[in-house]
Design goal:
The structure holds three protein chains of three kinds.
Chain A lengths: L3 E2 L17 E3 L4 H9 L3 E3 L5 H6 L7 E4 L10 E4 L2 E5 L4 H6 L1 H6 L1 H8 L4 H4 L4 H7 L7 H6 L3 E6 L2 E6 L4 E3 L2 E2 L6 E7 L4 E8 L10 E8 L4 E6 L6 E5 L11 H12 L12 H26 L1
Parallel strand pairs in A: 2-4, 3-4
Antiparallel strand pairs in A: 5-6, 6-11, 7-8, 7-11, 9-10, 12-13, 13-14, 14-15
Helix pairs in contact in A: 9-10
Chain B lengths: L14 H6 L14 E6 L6 E7 L1 H4 L4 E6 L9 E2 L6 E2 L5 E2 L7 E5 L2 H8 L3 E6 L6 H5 L22 E9 L9 E9 L11 E7 L2 E6 L4 H12 L6 E4 L16 H11 L3 E4 L2 H7 L4 E10 L5 E13 L5 H10 L9 E10 L13 H19 L3 H8 L18 H12 L9 E11 L4 E10 L4 E5 L8 H13 L6 E4 L17 H28 L7 E3 L2 E3 L5 E3 H9 L5 E10 L14 E12 L6 E11 L6 H20 L30 E7 L16 H4 L1 H13 L10 H10 L11
Parallel strand pairs in B: 1-14, 12-13, 16-17, 20-21, 27-28
Antiparallel strand pairs in B: 1-7, 2-6, 2-8, 3-7, 4-5, 9-17, 10-15, 11-12, 11-14, 15-16, 18-26, 19-20, 19-25, 22-23, 23-24, 26-27
Chain C lengths: L4 E8 L2 E8 L4 H8 L18 E4 L2 E4 L12 E3 L12 H8 L9 H14 L5 H7 L11 H10 L5
The chains are: A alpha+beta, B alpha+beta, C alpha+beta.
């Protein structure tokens, strides 16, 4: 910020005119990267969140650690067994264009296509989007519905964290200070899923709320909610009510209402909490109908 | 010359440079030896400055000056447009979030930023006045020190000025239906894609100011005054602005840079960040209380209007915005009785200035919704009620003032036809329609110098600013036709007060009329000169010689090109022909707004839209904007401007508003949270229609263009939203959430699934 | 402040440049300030407005969000490099002919984004054009003519 005041005041809205200086490192290997990160360096992939955060003073860093020089993280989308694996360095534009992703994970494509503009998607990585852990991240709901997990590399080697356990709060993940996400794993898609989001304008915008609905072949219905609390939320219905296209509208609506009560949306400059709450139900209805239709088409 | 240029969709002059990236805007100018300046501001609106420690900042390598109020003359120099009220740097107290308390000048931008971050300010936050209610509260702090308003009876209030207009007798007027409501219009900011930029080089020989300014001569005058210099020692160089919309009209940080330049001995340059532009300029927000009387036929009996405009701490041009727009608050209608009281209020908010529409959108928002409500309550079609009240050409709208100067019914009819007003309405959709007028300039002066060079090419020197509206192009078209010169042989020189003569301003959509006329007169003068030359060469009376479209015609039928005659006349020594011309409209001090408007910009906007009853989202299927322009010198540019105005209007209608927190800071500061329309927010079908009756005071019967398309967008959309949902909303913007809330409160139940 | 400077090598519009840059400077900073390629503009500096759009290694990106050092070894195309010296590409001509250029400040970024679309999609639909340009803000034009210019250049007509 351009001023250091002796008065105590809440962190100001930074007009972006102060100088943020940081160093730059471009490691060639994961262990090298980890060492730099453990030393306080901030991982840099697409830069579309990090650089903005640094310039606005919301993130501080002495050094950014460019991951794009690491072979292991180079852009890749591959079938591994029945799963699909996406490396950490893969830009979102590659993901939304990939035929396998488009065929098997349409809700992810819908959500990822809404991330910024084409200029942003050409740089922003899916893994980076996840690690940024914004409660409003569009990609989180479908990834949660599809049961994605992240593979994390640390001093002890690799470990896998289900995405549902990965988000801890706004900007906080289960990553330790000396760990990096190296890839995302999408299990074979067992469900029909649909995604919807609400924004303040039709053009590029952060989501006011977003919902992904997945209908499993066994009748489980899952909703993953974005911008509905400090971290993306998953609520599940195993009663079979929601999966049943013949269930009366009354029953479906009240079951959805019940499930949405788990959400804790806030009021902020984008929207009021009550509007968010109401829209969660609206989007839940909408995505349920689409997911059910998709399931019907599949069977 | 075969096909006239005037009236043709000629390609934009300057288009090549703009599509290739060659065009140099203010931030692209390389000033040798310039210091980079960064402003230091506080994270709140109002604070008492206790002390500023610049020592650490001054030690940053490359820093040449760290300025505070202590480095400026005492008393603090002040400048402004209506009044000399704005301090060069905040002194004693800051008055808005973004008012600089210090400024750093350094060899590099990095050094300036670093140093700006090291300035330590000891300050005490004070309670700010942030809205109309706050400003009018008798217990509220005074935004402006009464000592700075000597002799002003309102000096111990936050009311800066009151403007009162009245005709007929509102209190005695009878009406079958009286409708009374309050409407609000939010703070919005111009958000030109080019942030403001300035540079000043100041020494004993004078001052050169580079600025993205729309009105170089106003800047010249203000700089000369605050620096105590003759005007001839102040040169303003104004590169074509990258969009302005009124936000680059008046001085902002040029005076500060002048003092810093004098102190440091080097030119000082400041380019604002986008966020800093939000803190520097915005539209006047307003609360309009309107009581309208109708007879049972829907005819207007009276308008009783009270409006409070929130200006910010410094007046800038806002008194003019308020006085002029409120004068026309009763709109394009026949209104037998009217009473208008508009107040200009001070606040500790970001400062307001001129913005496209100049106060009229705020009134139109209220006025047109009153018409809709009357229509609803009287069971009249919303179009019909307007037709019953719209002034006919030649009829008075404000008594003893410029009457209706166009066939406004024609504009309305074109909008009605284009939207299919009476046609069947697809399921779930609704239509809305609104009209609006804005006064053009009431006085002013536009001088031009037209130089006919020996080779037949032409240089035109004018003080108009081409900020995207295409002034260069239409002046080129006019000169080309008048003198018979091919358009590429015409060069328009703008933006240099040392080269181009006085032009009052580029505002109020006045340039086609004022500067266009001035240039036409210059061309006529040149043709007279050519006639005299031809006459001298032939020993004939000048009256016997014709000069038209590049040809000189002699009585014996012989024809010669102008260039040949001129070259023959000037001989081998050469030379040129020069014309100095002006178009002046004198101010009338007896007139409440200084003179009668030269023309009105009249617009009719009609929309067809649907509202998602579940989410409150609006989808505009069709948007028609019709403007009465007199003559479209360049139809392509007219349509482009109108479309742009329409979309800008959709901005404040559907999504734009500056949100202030309790500290008076802009909470949505920046492009991320201040949303303007994108390509995906366009109506599915946007149509711009022009009415040309050649009944304007400008060249070829032209009026002016550029603001009309914005005036009644909000009202037209709100009208349709009301039809679609049954709820009436009197505040802007009509965000999905606001519409949803209104529907929820009214118990409007959604029918059918969400339709995204 | 600890400032790190690095030497980078960039191919910009077919010309190789080797220069020193601070690690925290963006590609936009380097293009404008070090290489005097002022055609690419700065507006929001946070990837929301698209005024700084260039192509990097064949992809349209916001150059304000690319560090200059990240662009080391990369191939950059700016508006100045879109057409030959003194020439206009069909897309650039279409922008002028359709009346899509007003103040012009958004135009370099807009043209780069539109050209990127046409490289990958020869006959885009109107919806695809709007989508492709949704990261480029314009305050003057109302977008309609910009969309038409792209349609014209694609030969797909309005």
């Amino acid at each position: 910020m351009g001023v250091r005041a002796r008065n105590a005041l809440p962190p100001p809205v930074a007009p972006g005119h102060s100088l943020i200086v940081f160093g730059y490192a471009r490691p060639r290997s994961l262990p090298e990267a980890l060492e730099l990160i453990a030393g306080g360096g901030r991982p840099l992939a697409g830069g579309t969140d990090l650089l903005v955060g640094l310039r606005k003073g919301k993130i501080s860093a002495d050094r950014v650690v460019d991951l794009k020089g690491i072979e292991d993280l180079a852009p890749a989308i591959e079938r591994v067994g029945e799963a699909v694996e996406i490396s950490a360095g893969t830009p979102i534009s590659d993901i939304v264009a990939h035929p396998v992703v488009r065929a098997d994970y349409p809700a992810l494509v819908a959500a990822a296509s809404a991330v910024g503009s084409i200029q942003i998607r050409n740089r922003a990585t899916l893994v980076g989007n996840i690690c940024n852990a914004s409660p409003a991240a569009d990609t989180a709901p479908p990834l949660l519905v599809y049961g994605a997990s992240v593979v994390v590399f640390g001093p002890g080697g690799e470990r896998t964290i289900p995405l549902a356990e990965f988000f801890l709060g706004p900007g906080r993940t289960a990553l330790a200070a000396d760990e990096l996400v190296v890839r995302l794993v999408l299990p074979p898609s067992m469900c029909s899923a649909a995604f919807a989001r609400l924004t303040r304008r039709r053009g590029v915008d952060l989501a006011t709320v977003s919902v992904c609905c997945g209908v499993d072949s066994d009748g489980t219905v899952r909703f993953a909610l974005g911008a509905a609390g400090p971290r993306p939320l998953v609520v599940e219905d195993t009663t079979g009510t929601l999966a049943d296209p013949a269930a009366p509208e009354e029953a479906t609506s009240s079951r959805i209402s019940e499930m949405m009560e788990a959400a804790t949306p806030i009021s902020d400059v984008r929207a009021g909490a009550d509007y968010r709450r109401a829209m969660l139900e609206v989007l839940a209805q909408k995505t349920l109908a689409e997911a059910r239709a998709q399931a019907g088409a599949r069977s | 010359m075969s096909i006239p240029n005037v009236g043709a969709p000629a390609g934009r002059v300057g288009g090549f440079d703009r599509v290739t990236g060659r065009q140099r805007y203010i931030a692209d100018l390389r000033l040798e030896d310039a210091l980079h300046v960064k402003l230091v501001t506080l994270p709140c609106a109002r604070a008492r400055i206790v002390g500023i420690d610049t020592s650490e900042a001054a030690r940053v390598p490359g820093v040449r000056a760290v300025f505070t109020a202590a480095d400026l003359p005492d008393p603090m120099p002040r400048y402004g447009v209506h009044y000399d009220d704005r301090p060069v740097l905040a002194v004693g107290e800051t008055k808005f979030h973004g008012e600089p308390v210090a400024a750093v000048a350094a060899d590099t931008l990095d050094a300036a930023r670093e140093a700006a971050g090291l300035v330590t300010v000891d300050y005490e936050e004070l309670p700010p006045v942030l809205d109309v209610r706050g400003a009018l509260d008798p217990a509220a702090p005074l935004v402006v020190d009464p000592d700075l308003r000597p002799g002003d009876p309102l000096a111990d209030t936050n009311i800066r000025r009151e403007f009162r207009y009245a005709w007929g007798d509102v209190d005695a007027a009878t009406a079958d239906l009286v409708i009374e409501n309050t409407y609000t219009f939010p703070m919005v900011t111009h958000f030109a894609i080019e942030p403001h930029g300035f540079a000043v080089s100041s020494d004993e020989s004078g001052v050169i100011v580079w600025s993205s300014i729309q009105h170089p001569y106003i800047l010249q005058r203000v700089m000369a005054r605050v620096l105590g210099l003759p005007w001839s020692k102040v040169r303003v160089i104004a590169p074509d602005p990258g969009g302005a919309f009124g936000g680059k009209g008046y001085p902002k940080f040029e005076p500060l840079l002048a003092f810093m330049s004098m102190a440091s001995g080097r030119p000082c340059r400041l380019v604002l960040t986008l966020e800093e532009t939000f803190q520097a300029v915005r539209r006047n927000s307003a609360e309009v209380r309107i009581r309208t009387g109708f007879d049972s036929d829907g005819r207007l009996r009276f308008q009783d209007i009270g409006a409070d405009f929130l200006m910010g701490a410094y007046v800038d041009i806002s008194e003019r915005v308020i006085s002029k727009s409120s004068h026309l608050a009763a709109g394009p209608y026949r209104v037998p009785n009217a009473r208008i009281l508009a107040r200009a209020l001070h606040s500790h908010t970001p400062p307001s200035t001129a913005m496209r529409g100049f106060g009229t959108p705020q009134f139109t928002w209220a006025l047109e919704q009153q018409m809709d409500e009357a229509a609803r309550r009287l069971g009249l079609d919303r179009l019909e009620i307007r037709l019953r009240n719209l002034a006919r050409k030649g009829e008075e709208i404000v008594p003893n003032d410029t009457p209706a100067d166009g066939d406004w019914f024609e504009s309305v009819q074109k909008a009605v036809d284009a939207i299919g007003w009476s046609g069947p309405l697809p399921e779930g959709r609704a239509r809305g329609l609104a009209v609006g007028i804005k006064s053009s300039a009431t006085a002013g002066a536009a001088y031009s110098i037209v130089r006919f060079l020996y080779d037949g090419s032409v240089l035109v020197l004018v003080g108009t600013s081409d900020m995207g509206q295409g002034a260069r192009t239409i002046l080129t078209q006019i000169v080309s036709d008048e003198l018979g010169v091919p358009p590429d042989a015409v060069t328009i020189v703008m933006g240099d007060t040392a080269a181009a003569p006085f032009d009052y301003s580029t505002s109020a959509s006045r340039s086609t009329v004022f500067m266009g006329s001035s240039v036409m007169r210059g061309c006529a003068d040149l043709k007279d000169q050519v006639r005299s030359i031809a006459a001298r060469l032939r020993g004939l009376p000048p009256d016997d010689i014709g000069v038209d479209r590049g040809m000189v015609t002699f009585p014996d039928g012989e024809e010669k090109g102008i260039v040949e005659v001129v070259q023959e006349g000037l001989g081998p020594v050469g030379g040129e022909l020069i014309a100095v011309a002006s178009m002046r409209g004198e101010a009338d001090p007896s007139h409440p707004i200084g003179g009668r408007p030269w023309f009105y910009e009249f617009n009719c906007t009609a929309v067809e839209l649907e509202v998602d009853r579940l989410t409150g989202e609006v989808l505009i299927h069709k948007h028609v904007t019709v403007g009465d322009v007199g003559k479209a010198i360049n139809p392509l540019q007219v349509e482009s401007q109108d479309e742009g105005a329409a979309i800008m209007g959709l901005g404040h209608t559907l999504m734009e508003h500056l949100v202030l927190d309790e500290h008076g800071r802009i909470a949505n500061l920046g492009a991320l949270d201040y949303r303007i329309p994108t390509t995906k927010d366009l109506p599915l079908d946007l149509e711009s229609v022009i009415v040309e009756n050649e009944d304007g005071p400008g060249p070829y019967g032209a009026k002016g263009v550029g603001e009309g398309g914005l005036l009644c967008v909000a009202a037209a959309v709100a009208s349709a939203v009301s039809e679609a949902t049954g709820v009436v909303i009197r505040d802007l913007p009509l965000t999905p959430e606001r519409i949803w809330r209104a529907m929820s409160r009214a118990g409007v139940t959604p029918s059918g699934a969400s339709r995204r | 402040m600890n400032r790190q400077t690095m030497t980078i090598s960039l191919d910009v519009n077919g010309q190789r440049h080797v220069l020193d840059t601070a690690a925290h400077h963006s590609l936009l900073d380097v293009l404008r300030n070090d290489l005097d390629l002022i055609g690419t503009k700065e507006c929001c500096a946070e990837g929301e407005c698209g005024a700084c759009t260039v192509w990097m290694d064949g992809k349209a990106v916001n150059s304000c969000l690319v560090l200059a050092v990240e662009a080391d070894g990369g191939e950059i195309t700016t508006i100045e490099g879109l057409a030959g010296e003194g020439e206009l590409s069909p897309l650039q001509s279409a922008f002028i002919e359709e009346g899509a250029v007003q103040c012009g400040f958004c135009i370099p970024g807009m043209v780069m984004a539109a050209a990127y679309l046409l490289e990958h999609n020869e006959r885009p639909t109107e919806a695809e054009i709007r989508e492709a340009l949704s990261g480029n803000l314009c305050r003057c034009a109302g977008y309609k003519r910009i969309v038409r210019a792209v349609q014209r250049a694609a030969g797909s007509g309005p």
